[in-house]
Amino acid sequence: MIRVVLPPHLRTLAQVKGEVQLDVPGRVTRGAVLDALEARYPVLRGTIRDHVTEQRRPFLRFFACARDLTHEPPDAPLPDAVASGAEPFLVIGAIAGG
Amino acid sequence: MSGVRVLVGTRKGAFVLTADGKRARWDVSGPHFAGWEIYHMKGSPADPDRLYASQTSGWFGQIIQRSCDGGKTWEAPGGGMTMEPGQMPKGESNKFVYDASAETGKPLTTHQWYDGTQHPWEFKRVWHLEPSLSDPDTVYGGVEDAALFQTSDGGKTWRELAGLRGHGTGPKWQPGAGGMCLHTILLDPSNPKRIHVAISAAGAFRSDDAGKTWKPINRGLHSQYIPDQTAEVGHCVHRIAMHPSRPNTLFMQKHWDVLRSDDAGDSWREVSGNLPTDFGFVIDVHAHEPETVYVVPIKSDSEHYPLDGKLRVYRSRTGGNEWEALTQGLPQRDCYVNVLRDAMAVDSLESCGVYFGTTGGQVYGSTDGGDTWTAIVRDLPAVLSVEVQTLR
User: Fold this and answer.
1) Which residue among A79, B50, B55, B240 is least crowded, i.e. fewest CB within 10 A of its CB?
2) Would you kindly state where each structural domain of chain A is located, as residue ranges?
3) Digit-coded pLDDT (tens) for A24-76
4) Would you call B93 exposed, middle or buried from its count of C-beta atoms within 10 A (0-12, 13-18, 19+)?
5) ipTM value of the model?
6) A2-97 homologous superfamily
7) d(CA B86, nearest CA chain A) in Å
8) Cβ-defined contact of B95 to A46 (cutoff 8 Å)
9) pLDDT digit string (tens) for B276-312?
10) Residue B339, C-beta contacts closer than 8 angstroms, at least 6 positions apart
11) Of B36, B88, B94, which is closest to A46 when you measure between CB atoms?
């Protein structure tokens, strides 16, 4: 089970409290996690990455295990601790998201 | 029992102000969508409980919200939670993609940037939502970078009416200070195929075939900030207003100048008359008097606040040229707010109500056509838009 922490505005939009827990089939990459997140919460489509190009929205960043993963390729594997559920994958709005 | 519902979009959320027909005591609900910019909210003329809102953020993009109960509850029409992937339709209600397809679209061109160079077309947000006059599920959306979209399924999916963006003059369109936005959409109640739109800074356009093809309607406009001051396009039109009983008469607040047209925009003439300054953003028409027009003069294009620190609405009862200042109940010293282009509206009760919101967070209302004003609320976030529904 993958744990995802969303910024407050996106938690409100998705109507969730606290962390989101997702089943992610196959390799645990940022792209796979976001695919699973958007499938579960379609309202989040377009809020983290572009609908068509799937490029990251410019004011959002991705952290995990005290590392900045923002500029890692979307198909790069996430840290083992994220894949095992020991650590969450963090979606962060730059400067708290406005 | 009659009443009014005032829909207020602000920089940090939406507010719904309601009152009975006396308009003396107001109930304030909100903030809805707290912390988000609400560029516009508007109700369907065909179903007053159906509301649409444009919720937007530089961080998280564009969200469309819909209410089916007059604003008590809201939903993103294309995207609630799905318990299992693929169980429900995917969220598409936030998806605004320019139609560049060979079948129905127009190629993506560039537009002029502030420095005169060409810049790619990029979707940023929805500025204005204009529900159909007859179908609660059909809504037009005016967006930045300028284009017109339409939904016919209550906001679940949106498609571009690409004939406007692809009309051919796009490379001459340029952004104003707020961005290159399509901010005004007027539907002609006497002709379902006629639509007027206005774009900053491109000008006004009209379609007579329900949005398939468009022509610029800017003859008579003079703008000092473009090389050819009477060019076909490039004018920074801030707002257009129409009285439903006279759809061929349009009133325009341009960057500078107040104008009117009596031939559905084919030609315009200036009616600024005795206004102390003819820069401004809003313009609207009295609900029962098609020649009574309201503007809020702003000092200049570089000083976006009222002249002399006095917040004054100006009213013309002669369709322009002769204007009177309306000041009773409005601050007449030390006032340096702005009134943005979508932040004025009128109700259609027997004594016409007029409402406007300010960047200082006040929403002022008048129940006597502008003679006297009171602040319904004083301390909201900066007001981006005001719409009114008259409930009967």
Assistant:
1) A79
2) 2-97
3) 999 999 999 999 999 999 999 999 999 989 999 999 999 999 999 999 999 99
4) buried
5) 0.86
6) Beta-grasp domain (3.10.20.30)
7) 7
8) yes
9) 999 999 999 999 999 999 999 999 999 999 999 999 9
10) B280, B281, B282, B296, B298, B356, B357, B358, B359
11) B94
